[in-house]
Amino acid sequence: MVGQDPVAPALSLSTFLRALRERQSPAEFGLAAGPRRRTPGLRREEVAQLCGLSATWYTWIEQGRDVSVSAATLARLARGLRLSRAERSYLFEVAGKRDPERPGQGDDPPEAVLACVDAIDGPAYILDRIWSARRWNAKASALFAGWLDTGGETNLLRYIFLRPEAKTLILDWTARAHRVVAEFRAAVTAYSDDPDIRRLVDELRIASPDFARCWETQGVLAREGGERAFNHPAMGLLNYQQVSLSLAGWPDYRLTMLLPAPRLD
């Protein structure tokens, strides 16, 4: 007989909800502690009331019964229990649902975080969820002619597919373009209903046959670093190692750094 995985209960939705309930302070929600509380934290009936759910429905969820918990119900639980960003993300993850509100989606990193690019000794830039550059340093501006040096359009995809400079600057443009689209598709899966992303994709499919062909392949790739080579009109052949990192606390923003690499033969 195969033993039960000891990790599984700790990762279950019911176990997580019970732990959340038991560590909440009734006073923080304006509820009297009362002399008759036999368990720590909130009662199930109180959680249900705070979250706008029936007591029976919440009880079934916490008991781990075979019920279908919708994303809307999870959102009510997150709001009612005042979950932190990390707790809310974990709640949806353990329930196997996509968060329709994506906490932090509309929050911009503070100026001090964006300014980190100025401390990097190499081209560096920060992209938001639709892959528009929000901040870049002087070396990035010097490298990316037609994108980060113009003070105009800052979207990376529009630059790659709509600006003629990109095909000259980026070595092996065709392969890189296919990979960038596959990485973008993977990155925006959680935003399938985001109007900004849908407008961007629709625009590029019309304006760029190259983008349309790449998009129709349905390629999906995780974003990763590696060798990047550029043929700069003034600086000649440039080789870098690209490193991309998500910003802690702002998962929709990514910092990309191009670090000097040996010249390719």
From TrEMBL:
Pfam families according to UniProt: HTH_31 (PF13560), MLTR_LBD (PF17765)
Domain (HTH cro/C1-type) ranges: 16-88
Gene Ontology terms for molecular function: DNA binding
SMART domains tied to this protein: HTH_XRE (SM00530)
SUPFAM superfamilies according to UniProt: lambda repressor-like DNA-binding domains (SSF47413)
Domain of life according to the entry: Bacteria
UniProt cross-references to PANTHER family, sorted A to Z: BLL4672 PROTEIN, BLL4672 PROTEIN-RELATED
Name recorded for this polypeptide: Transcriptional regulator
Organism of this sequence: Bradyrhizobium guangdongense
